[in-house]
Amino acid sequence: MNKILILGGAGFVGSHLCEKLTRLAWRSTVPTRRRAAAQHLWMLPLVDVFEADIHDEAALTRLVAGHDAVVNLVGMLHGSAAGFDRVHVQLAQELARACAATGVRRVLHVSALGAGADAPSMYQRSKAGGEEALRAADLDLTVLRPSVMFGPQDRFLNLFAGLQQKFPVIPLAGGATKFQPVWVEDVASALVACLQERSRIGQTYEACGPQVLTLRELVQLAGRLGGRERPVLPLPMALARLQALLMEWGPGEPLISRDNLDSMKVDNVASGQVPGLQALGISPSSVSAIAPTYLNAPGLEGELLAMRRTAGRF
């Protein structure tokens, strides 16, 4: 296996995966809506970046043809029920048909920890729908369910640290919700391990780090490492939902949505019902060990400006 199509390859996980595949001398194809958005991949040898609309099924079928495997990293955190369905479910259905039309059988699908048909949020339910769409097809499928991911370019810990650089207090809803953050490098390594071993076919893996922390503890950790820890003010859920609604109405991508709040009705930790990273030979790194290597006060202003440009507001 040496030619991999990576849907969503220009994003957070995809960038790390492309680097690892390059080291293996495997060729990667990365379609993107705007080639300029993938400039960070241009200098990687064996990575081919193309402008394409992967939601156009004919274009997707042409992309899939000639590859040994497809990795689907495409996802969205904010949106409507129709938007989640299009990105998480319909794309998976289209990918299944494209694979059937081209004879490509090997698919790695990145879902989400907590995905389930009865999950509290549209995001989690649509992620479950995408899994089922691919399982219903005749494919050599592996599913990876990562927890919230952290790393130098994350919009998770960097966001919390950046907010504490700007505001004297952090209002926070769902502060008691537990998370099991996973390093993006460990997720990319898990995908490589699944591509290398056919014994991973038919399996589902939960990708979680070794630490379980509440959202409040993660916010405090980000502030402390960023050099400016602010008091955390618990926000009543009714007020939080009103705040999220106002953010959804504003321009750009919201910092938080009502659907995000719904996700936090349950803890985002490993279920223990399916194998974890250890089953792939990976000893996951903790957020306490990795976050200090990239969260620091001098670099946060640049992160803040970059996120403002991306989201349209802060």
Task: Describe, in short, the structure shown.
With 314 residues, the chain is α/β, with parallel strands linked by helices.
Provide a descriptive summary of the structure in words.
With 314 residues, the protein is α/β, with parallel strands linked by helices. The protein folds into two domains: 3-146, NAD(P)-binding Rossmann-like Domain (Rossmann fold); 157-177 and 211-269 and 285-311. Helix content is 42%, strand content 16%. The chain is built from twelve helices and 13 strands. The strands form four sheets. Strands 3-2-1-4-5-6-11 form a seven-stranded parallel β-sheet, with helices on both faces. Strands 7-10 form a two-stranded parallel ribbon. Helix 1 (12-23) crosses helix 7, helix 3 (57-64) crosses helix 4 and helix 6 (157-166) packs across helix 12. It is globular, with a radius of gyration of 19 Å. The relative contact order is 0.13. Mean pLDDT is 90; it is low at 297-314.
E-strand count: 13
> What amount of the residues lies in strands?
15-25%
Q: Which class of secondary structure composition applies to the elements?
A: alpha/beta
CATH homologous group name of the largest domain: NAD(P)-binding Rossmann-like Domain
Topology:
Elements (H helix, E strand, L loop, with lengths): L2 E5 L4 H12 L3 E6 L6 H4 L4 E5 L5 H8 L4 E4 L8 H22 L3 E5 L11 H14 L4 E7 L2 E2 L6 H10 L3 E3 L5 E2 L2 E2 H13 L7 E4 L5 E2 H11 L6 E3 L2 H13 L8 H6 L23 H4 L6 H15 L3
Structural key phrases:
42% helix, two-stranded parallel sheet, globular, 7-stranded parallel sheet, disordered C terminus, Rossmann fold, 16% strand, 314 residues, alpha/beta
